[in-house]
Amino acid sequence: VYREAGMRRLYLGDEAVVDTTTFTLEGQAMKTVRQSFTRAQRAGYTTTVMRSRDVTPELRTQLMTISDTWRGDAVERGFSMALGRLFDDRDGDAIFVIGNDEAGTPKGFLHLVRWGNDGVSLDVMRRDREALNVLNDFLVVSATQQLPALGITRISLNFSMLRGALVAGAEAGAPLWLRLQRSLLLTLSGKYQIESLYRFNKKFSPDWLPRYLMLEAPEDAPRVMGAALQAEGYLKTPALISRLTRHVD
Length: 249
Description:
The chain is an alpha+beta fold. Helix content is 37%, strand content 24%. It has helices spanning 31-42, 57-71, 135-146, 163-169, 176-192, 194-202, 221-232, 238-245; strands at 8-19, 46-51, 95-100, 106-115, 119-127, 154-161, 207-215. The protein has a seven-stranded mixed β-sheet with strand order 2-3-4-5-6-1-7. Helix 4 crosses helix 5 and helix 7 packs across helix 8 (238-245). It is globular and about 55 Å long. The mean pLDDT is 86.
């Protein structure tokens, strides 16, 4: 449809989507996740799943403390895949998957927002820095096991920027331009978590759904990307933003 309208497609990366109806911990590919899940269970961790509207004031305070402590002074970013708010009255249907230690104390959580009638999208993933380091894996697996009871068949995890280049550039015999692309992405990963997000998503054997930026003309790319980076919170220089995003709504 976009092509017929005269627009051009620019590949951005892939969204990792887990099908809860077919997800399994069986098989060699799931060994790492299976071990993480078992380790958390043996440590006495459990999960609680509830709608945002049902969270008690006391629990809300505990979860906000976990969130604020995890973030520290870091600026909130990633607004294309994040809601940007917690416990808003508009989000009563949002779902919390809460990880509790052996004493029943919350140690981390996933906040998932509605995606159509049968899906949810991961908004934020936060944990106590003193909690078990496999807690996030435990929460994702727990979500796949418990959310089908709520009619949820799809969980969108994270967006993997230029995943195709990371994968293709690592293959034996990959052309130079792909290897250079991958090398650049690995360099940027230190700041933007490109590779780490890809590796986290990959552990769960998701379906990879490509995502694209649609442009009227190739020369629009710098301005459109500038506007996108500004919205994501990565561009802060007013003069540069103004030049890049002029005439972009």
